[in-house]
Protein backbone atom coordinates (compact mmCIF):
# COMPACT_ATOMS: atom_id res chain seq x y z
CA UNK A 1 0.00 0.00 0.00
CA UNK A 2 1.46 3.33 -1.06
CA UNK A 3 0.50 6.97 -0.68
CA UNK A 4 0.32 7.89 -4.37
CA UNK A 5 -0.81 11.27 -5.70
CA UNK A 6 0.41 10.74 -9.26
CA UNK A 7 -1.76 12.48 -11.80
CA UNK A 8 -3.23 14.85 -9.21
CA UNK A 9 -2.91 18.62 -9.08
CA UNK A 10 -2.72 20.36 -5.70
CA UNK A 11 -2.99 24.00 -4.69
CA UNK A 12 -1.25 25.07 -1.48
CA UNK A 13 -1.99 28.56 -0.21
CA UNK A 14 0.75 30.26 1.76
CA UNK A 15 3.18 27.82 0.15
CA UNK A 16 6.26 29.91 0.90
CA UNK A 17 5.56 29.89 4.64
CA UNK A 18 7.34 27.68 7.15
CA UNK A 19 4.72 24.93 7.01
CA UNK A 20 3.41 25.58 3.51
CA UNK A 21 6.75 24.86 1.83
CA UNK A 22 7.00 21.44 3.53
CA UNK A 23 3.43 20.57 2.58
CA UNK A 24 4.12 21.52 -1.04
CA UNK A 25 7.33 19.48 -1.18
CA UNK A 26 5.60 16.48 0.39
CA UNK A 27 2.68 16.50 -2.02
CA UNK A 28 5.13 16.72 -4.90
CA UNK A 29 7.20 13.86 -3.48
CA UNK A 30 4.01 11.78 -3.47
CA UNK A 31 3.54 12.49 -7.18
CA UNK A 32 1.31 15.57 -7.36
CA UNK A 33 1.84 18.61 -9.54
CA UNK A 34 1.63 21.68 -7.32
CA UNK A 35 0.37 25.24 -7.63
CA UNK A 36 2.28 27.39 -5.14
CA UNK A 37 0.37 30.38 -3.83
CA UNK A 38 2.26 33.20 -2.13
CA UNK A 39 1.63 36.80 -1.15
CA UNK A 40 5.04 38.52 -1.18
CA UNK A 41 8.06 36.15 -0.99
CA UNK A 42 8.78 35.82 -4.70
CA UNK A 43 12.31 34.55 -4.12
CA UNK A 44 11.12 31.62 -2.04
CA UNK A 45 8.28 30.87 -4.45
CA UNK A 46 10.69 30.57 -7.38
CA UNK A 47 13.11 28.48 -5.31
CA UNK A 48 10.30 26.13 -4.27
CA UNK A 49 9.07 25.86 -7.85
CA UNK A 50 12.54 24.77 -8.95
CA UNK A 51 12.76 22.22 -6.13
CA UNK A 52 9.49 20.62 -7.18
CA UNK A 53 10.40 20.62 -10.85
CA UNK A 54 13.65 18.88 -9.92
CA UNK A 55 11.48 16.05 -8.56
CA UNK A 56 10.00 15.64 -12.02
CA UNK A 57 6.71 17.35 -11.16
CA UNK A 58 5.11 20.41 -12.66
CA UNK A 59 4.87 23.51 -10.50
CA UNK A 60 3.43 26.96 -11.05
CA UNK A 61 3.54 29.98 -8.80
CA UNK A 62 0.48 32.18 -8.27
CA UNK A 63 0.43 35.40 -6.28
CA UNK A 64 -2.34 37.35 -4.63
CA UNK A 65 -4.41 38.25 -1.57
CA UNK A 66 -6.30 35.04 -0.91
CA UNK A 67 -8.78 36.85 1.34
CA UNK A 68 -10.37 38.36 -1.78
CA UNK A 69 -12.89 36.39 -3.83
CA UNK A 70 -11.65 37.66 -7.20
CA UNK A 71 -8.13 36.48 -6.33
CA UNK A 72 -9.33 32.91 -5.74
CA UNK A 73 -11.11 32.85 -9.10
CA UNK A 74 -8.10 34.35 -10.89
CA UNK A 75 -5.80 31.78 -9.28
CA UNK A 76 -8.16 29.01 -10.34
CA UNK A 77 -8.05 30.21 -13.94
CA UNK A 78 -4.26 30.54 -13.93
CA UNK A 79 -3.73 27.08 -12.49
CA UNK A 80 -6.25 25.42 -14.79
CA UNK A 81 -4.61 26.99 -17.84
CA UNK A 82 -1.21 25.52 -16.88
CA UNK A 83 -1.89 22.37 -14.87
CA UNK A 84 -5.55 21.55 -15.46
CA UNK A 85 -8.25 21.26 -12.82
CA UNK A 86 -7.28 21.19 -9.16
CA UNK A 87 -7.92 17.92 -7.32
CA UNK A 88 -6.51 18.90 -3.91
CA UNK A 89 -6.86 22.26 -2.15
CA UNK A 90 -4.81 22.96 0.99
CA UNK A 91 -5.86 26.19 2.72
CA UNK A 92 -2.72 26.96 4.70
CA UNK A 93 -2.26 30.74 4.44
CA UNK A 94 -3.02 32.86 7.50
CA UNK A 95 -2.35 36.48 8.42
CA UNK A 96 0.23 36.97 11.19
CA UNK A 97 -0.25 39.47 14.03
CA UNK A 98 0.88 40.15 17.60
CA UNK A 99 -1.10 38.25 20.24
CA UNK A 100 -2.37 40.01 23.36
CA UNK A 101 -5.40 40.04 25.66
CA UNK A 102 -8.97 40.50 24.47
CA UNK A 103 -9.02 43.95 26.06
CA UNK A 104 -5.82 44.98 24.28
CA UNK A 105 -6.22 43.17 20.94
CA UNK A 106 -6.92 45.53 18.05
CA UNK A 107 -10.34 44.97 16.42
CA UNK A 108 -8.70 44.72 13.01
CA UNK A 109 -6.83 41.62 14.19
CA UNK A 110 -10.14 39.82 14.65
CA UNK A 111 -11.17 40.92 11.17
CA UNK A 112 -7.88 39.71 9.66
CA UNK A 113 -8.25 36.30 11.27
CA UNK A 114 -11.84 35.97 10.08
CA UNK A 115 -10.78 36.91 6.57
CA UNK A 116 -7.77 34.61 6.40
CA UNK A 117 -9.34 31.62 8.16
CA UNK A 118 -13.04 31.73 7.29
CA UNK A 119 -13.34 33.77 4.11
CA UNK A 120 -10.25 32.28 2.48
CA UNK A 121 -11.86 28.86 2.85
CA UNK A 122 -15.22 30.09 1.55
CA UNK A 123 -13.65 31.72 -1.52
CA UNK A 124 -11.49 28.68 -2.25
CA UNK A 125 -14.57 26.46 -2.02
CA UNK A 126 -16.51 28.67 -4.41
CA UNK A 127 -13.61 28.66 -6.87
CA UNK A 128 -12.48 25.01 -6.76
CA UNK A 129 -15.33 22.81 -5.49
CA UNK A 130 -17.41 23.03 -8.73
CA UNK A 131 -14.66 21.25 -10.69
CA UNK A 132 -14.45 18.60 -7.99
CA UNK A 133 -18.22 18.14 -8.17
CA UNK A 134 -17.98 17.66 -11.92
CA UNK A 135 -15.22 15.07 -11.45
CA UNK A 136 -17.04 13.48 -8.48
CA UNK A 137 -13.76 13.49 -6.60
CA UNK A 138 -11.64 15.90 -4.61
CA UNK A 139 -9.85 16.77 -1.40
CA UNK A 140 -10.39 20.05 0.47
CA UNK A 141 -8.01 20.37 3.43
CA UNK A 142 -7.65 23.22 5.89
CA UNK A 143 -4.85 23.88 8.36
CA UNK A 144 -6.45 24.58 11.72
CA UNK A 145 -4.65 24.61 15.11
CA UNK A 146 -4.61 23.03 18.56
CA UNK A 147 -5.39 26.54 19.85
CA UNK A 148 -8.99 26.10 18.68
CA UNK A 149 -9.43 23.59 21.50
CA UNK A 150 -7.17 25.23 24.09
CA UNK A 151 -8.70 28.73 24.34
CA UNK A 152 -5.68 30.01 26.25
CA UNK A 153 -5.04 33.64 27.16
CA UNK A 154 -3.93 35.88 24.29
CA UNK A 155 -5.26 33.46 21.63
CA UNK A 156 -8.64 35.08 21.14
CA UNK A 157 -8.38 36.44 17.58
CA UNK A 158 -6.61 33.34 16.25
CA UNK A 159 -8.96 30.99 18.09
CA UNK A 160 -12.02 32.88 16.92
CA UNK A 161 -10.89 32.69 13.29
CA UNK A 162 -10.00 29.01 13.45
CA UNK A 163 -13.20 28.03 15.28
CA UNK A 164 -15.20 29.85 12.62
CA UNK A 165 -13.21 27.99 9.98
CA UNK A 166 -14.07 24.72 11.70
CA UNK A 167 -17.77 25.42 11.28
CA UNK A 168 -17.39 26.10 7.57
CA UNK A 169 -15.49 22.86 7.00
CA UNK A 170 -17.97 20.69 8.88
CA UNK A 171 -20.93 22.13 6.98
CA UNK A 172 -19.10 21.94 3.65
CA UNK A 173 -18.28 18.28 4.29
CA UNK A 174 -22.01 17.53 4.56
CA UNK A 175 -22.88 19.59 1.50
CA UNK A 176 -20.38 18.05 -0.93
CA UNK A 177 -20.03 14.52 0.40
CA UNK A 178 -22.39 13.05 -2.19
CA UNK A 179 -19.82 14.01 -4.83
CA UNK A 180 -17.14 11.92 -3.08
CA UNK A 181 -15.32 15.11 -2.08
CA UNK A 182 -13.76 14.95 1.37
CA UNK A 183 -13.36 18.03 3.57
CA UNK A 184 -10.99 17.78 6.53
CA UNK A 185 -8.80 19.82 8.86
CA UNK A 186 -5.31 19.16 10.18
CA UNK A 187 -4.67 20.89 13.51
CA UNK A 188 -0.95 21.22 14.31
CA UNK A 189 0.48 21.75 17.75
CA UNK A 190 3.39 24.13 18.25
CA UNK A 191 5.52 22.87 15.38
CA UNK A 192 9.26 22.93 14.77
CA UNK A 193 9.99 24.52 11.40
CA UNK A 194 13.04 25.26 9.27
CA UNK A 195 13.34 28.60 11.07
CA UNK A 196 13.49 26.88 14.47
CA UNK A 197 16.10 24.38 13.31
CA UNK A 198 18.24 27.21 11.94
CA UNK A 199 17.99 29.28 15.13
CA UNK A 200 18.24 26.32 17.51
CA UNK A 201 14.92 27.25 19.13
CA UNK A 202 13.24 23.88 18.70
CA UNK A 203 12.85 22.97 22.38
CA UNK A 204 10.61 24.53 25.02
CA UNK A 205 10.49 22.62 28.30
CA UNK A 206 7.34 24.26 29.63
CA UNK A 207 5.39 23.39 26.50
CA UNK A 208 6.73 19.88 25.99
CA UNK A 209 5.85 18.93 29.55
CA UNK A 210 2.17 19.42 28.64
CA UNK A 211 2.47 17.10 25.62
CA UNK A 212 1.99 13.35 26.21
CA UNK A 213 4.75 12.56 23.68
CA UNK A 214 7.04 15.06 25.49
CA UNK A 215 8.22 16.88 22.39
CA UNK A 216 7.18 19.39 19.78
CA UNK A 217 6.05 18.07 16.40
CA UNK A 218 8.04 18.51 13.21
CA UNK A 219 6.72 20.31 10.14
CA UNK A 220 7.17 17.11 8.15
CA UNK A 221 4.79 15.31 10.51
CA UNK A 222 2.10 17.88 9.76
CA UNK A 223 2.74 17.57 6.02
CA UNK A 224 2.48 13.78 6.28
CA UNK A 225 -1.03 14.10 7.70
CA UNK A 226 -2.02 16.46 4.89
CA UNK A 227 -0.65 14.06 2.26
CA UNK A 228 -2.56 11.17 3.82
CA UNK A 229 -5.84 13.10 3.74
CA UNK A 230 -5.13 14.08 0.13
CA UNK A 231 -4.72 10.45 -0.88
CA UNK A 232 -7.11 7.63 -1.73
CA UNK A 233 -6.14 6.00 1.58
CA UNK A 234 -8.36 8.60 3.28
CA UNK A 235 -11.31 8.24 0.89
CA UNK A 236 -13.82 7.55 3.71
CA UNK A 237 -12.66 10.28 6.10
CA UNK A 238 -14.52 13.58 5.94
CA UNK A 239 -15.67 16.27 8.34
CA UNK A 240 -12.70 15.51 10.60
CA UNK A 241 -10.64 17.84 12.78
CA UNK A 242 -7.40 15.89 13.27
CA UNK A 243 -4.90 17.20 15.85
CA UNK A 244 -1.26 16.48 15.03
CA UNK A 245 -0.07 17.64 18.42
CA UNK A 246 1.43 14.67 20.22
CA UNK A 247 -1.77 14.30 22.22
CA UNK A 248 -1.65 17.85 23.56
CA UNK A 249 -5.30 18.22 22.60
CA UNK A 250 -7.69 15.28 22.33
CA UNK A 251 -11.18 15.74 20.83
CA UNK A 252 -13.67 13.76 22.90
CA UNK A 253 -16.85 11.93 22.02
TrEMBL record:
<dbReference type="InterPro" id="IPR036291">
    <property type="entry name" value="NAD(P)-bd_dom_sf"/>
</dbReference>
<dbReference type="GO" id="GO:0008206">
    <property type="term" value="P:bile acid metabolic process"/>
</dbReference>
<dbReference type="InterPro" id="IPR002347">
    <property type="entry name" value="SDR_fam"/>
</dbReference>
<dbReference type="GO" id="GO:0016491">
    <property type="term" value="F:oxidoreductase activity"/>
</dbReference>
<protein>
    <submittedName>
        <fullName>3-oxoacyl-[acyl-carrier protein] reductase</fullName>
    </submittedName>
</protein>
<comment type="similarity">
    <text>Belongs to the short-chain dehydrogenases/reductases (SDR) family.</text>
</comment>
<dbReference type="Pfam" id="PF13561">
    <property type="entry name" value="adh_short_C2"/>
</dbReference>
<keyword id="KW-0560">Oxidoreductase</keyword>
